[in-house]
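Show me a record, fold above all:
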Amino acid sequence: MDILIKNATVITCNAQNEVLKGDILIKSGKIARIAENIELSFSEQAFVKVIEGKDLIAIPGLINAHTHCGQTVLRSFADDLPLYEWLFEKIFPAEEKLTKEMIYFSSLLGIAEMLKSGTTMFFDMYFHEDMTAKAVQQTGIKAVLSRGLQTDEKEDVRLDETKELIYNYSSDKIKVFFGPHSIYTCSYELLEKVAQLAQEFKTGVMIHLSESENEVNGCYEKYDMSPVKLCNQAGLFDTICIAAHCVYVDDEDIEIMAEKNVSCVYNPTSNLKLGNGFAPVQNMIKSGVNVAIGTDSAASNNNLNMLEEMHIASLLEKGMYRLSDILNAQQILKMATVNAAIAAGIKKTGVLQEGFCADIVLLKANDFNMLPCYNPISNVVYSSNPSNVYATIVDGQILYMNGKLFTLDEEALVKEVKSIEKFLKESV
């Protein structure tokens, strides 16, 4: 059924940064028209669902540009630890216990949380990624998926799994990238191989890059260059490349990233929680690097709430640079929408514009924490939380509205997750 949203405040995120008061007509999953007053013909009225939006703010669907959805069941499993201890001593051993079925339910859990907090697309790296793909297909959300790669005896098996993902799951809703985990878990030879395969399959690459001081120091000791320069030399930047974190990048690194059109994903909460420091986001933006925002996983955040992540992303940079006017609300909202789409080479989403995908989030403007509303963009970035999300719409399909998810059984999901929790408590 088509949808007409009436009388909403429409934050377009278009090139002119327009904020409009009017209607949005959705037909066949696309935004057919945005205008002050759209009238339906008598014949149309029976086939169009009308949503009264006079107390709603419409924004482009949020895009979580870096997470590990299959890791959602490890929320709060290993808190208050530095990255390497968190990863190698706690997370990796726990992950060895996770079955394909557990990854499926973990992915459903993450997707449910994201839909309820206004996310319409996420970028993901994990294992058993076919299970995450199935969860994406079931729920109707969009995703860019990558099977995490590392150098060991199963390296070729993982590469084959990536190819199978491309063959079996690529669609209008799912893109598949190659996903070398990092320069410290992948050999230089694997990085080169991934670069070649990404070009062969005409797809992209996502990687954790310069996340910690240990990573950068280890790279200099082994290769006598920074992780950014190493990836560039290996050819990873000769295709679409999404680099998560980029906390320890210098001016030369940033110059390379800008020149090669490498997109950075800013993960402020995860970087803070793991004690990794502060990414030089403002410097990257000034140099022309496209920057998006991601939550990272629920194991290192501990949520997948992009509304909160936008808020923290802005405040952290303001405090770090001691400049109140940088990363303003408009910039932040674009980083969480159109910039993320640009990062993955995805067109026709991230903006509320005629002809674009109807990936739309409706926020309740009259909730107490959203009043008064002198500037709706500011209220979205600095004031909103998931309780304000009224509806999440993907390709014109209402996946969540007024407290209800329509594409999964919430009660059954809770039971499955609690069963996984019990198993991990007893076995790890």
In short: Residues 62-344 form a domain with the TIM Barrel fold (CATH 3.20.20.140). The longest strand covers residues 2-11.
